[in-house]
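User: Can you recover a sequence for this backbone? Please restate the input before giving your answer.

Assistant: Of course. Working from this structure:
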């Protein structure tokens, strides 16, 4: 059954009837149109899916002469048959674009499944899967060996890291721009940073919201020094570029006399992992190495003082 075959987009809304859409009453055509975009709710989500692949319909959407719609990938597969997949009527001139359905599926908004954990996004129904894959409020897997704990950043995850494993966690808020700067001591093993950054709204919106990103800085002892790798845990938005700058400085002196200084700095394009398969091999990642001779004989097991700058920018 094709639910949109006989749908009249110009019909008046009956506020007393129960259907698959709800639009609050308002005055004026323009106001009604804006309200529909904001408040339309689908009770039967299958009606918004392609009848062939059962995936959410998203532009471009095509229809036969009768009005049966298909998504773009399925449309390409049907081109060689010359017939509609439902009614079997010959599509002599090919499928036509269904602009009304395209506007409809882009207007219907659904709450994120992680709304109870702080996500306020209302993605379009056709984009909910891509949002779910990139949502920073999704649950995280513990990177501990043989540890199956899964938790949320706002509920139990950080307590698990510090209480069960003794891993340090540091949070930095900077909601004025898209860069967070830390000055911390990194211990051997896992160190976690939470960057609470300002981000623009979806679709180029001017609305500014805050998003939390969880980073793992893994410090390993190497023959000549300590190597630091950086990993974004979770799901990185496909439209974002995550950069991290690590800086280590050291001043050499003797009897209060300045002898010289060292400055090490690296800019890292941060990779992302949901840790479902464990922590990636650090040797396969970019590593920032601090030589042992700069730390001194008595400080090789102590925390390394590092400056960390993390930025989340839109891809050009």
């Amino acid at each position: 059954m094709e639910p949109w075959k006989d749908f009249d987009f110009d019909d008046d809304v009956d506020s007393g009837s129960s259907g698959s859409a709800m639009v609050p009453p308002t005055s004026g055509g323009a106001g009604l149109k804006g309200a529909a975009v904001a408040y339309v709710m689908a009770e039967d989500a299958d009606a918004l899916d392609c009848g062939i692949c059962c995936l959410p319909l998203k532009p471009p959407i095509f229809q036969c002469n009768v009005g049966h719609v298909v998504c773009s990938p399925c449309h390409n597969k049907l081109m060689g048959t010359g017939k509609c997949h439902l009614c079997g009527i010959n599509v002599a001139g090919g499928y036509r674009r269904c602009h009304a359905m395209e506007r409809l599926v882009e207007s219907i908004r659904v709450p994120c499944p992680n709304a109870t954990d702080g996500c306020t996004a209302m993605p379009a129904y056709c984009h909910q899967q891509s949002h779910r894959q990139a949502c920073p409020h999704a649950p995280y897997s513990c990177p501990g060996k043989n540890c199956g704990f899964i938790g949320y950043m706002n509920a139990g995850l950080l307590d698990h890291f510090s209480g069960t494993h003794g891993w340090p966690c540091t949070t930095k808020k900077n909601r004025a721009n898209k860069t967070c700067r830390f000055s911390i001591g990194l211990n051997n093993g896992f160190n976690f940073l939470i960057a609470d950054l300002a981000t623009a709204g979806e679709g180029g919106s001017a609305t500014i919201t805050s998003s939390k990103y969880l980073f793992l800085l893994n410090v390993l002892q190497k023959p000549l020094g300590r190597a630091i790798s950086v990993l974004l845990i979770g799901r990185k938005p496909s439209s974002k570029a995550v950069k991290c700058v690590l800086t280590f400085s050291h001043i050499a002196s003797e009897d209060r006399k300045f002898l010289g200084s060292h400055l090490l700095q690296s800019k890292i394009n941060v990779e992302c992992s949901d840790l479902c398969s464990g922590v990636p091999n650090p040797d396969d990642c970019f590593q920032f190495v601090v030589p042992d001779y700069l730390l001194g004989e008595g400080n090789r097991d102590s925390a390394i003082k590092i400056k960390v700058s993390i930025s989340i920018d839109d891809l050009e």
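That completes the design. The first helix runs from residue 29 to 39.
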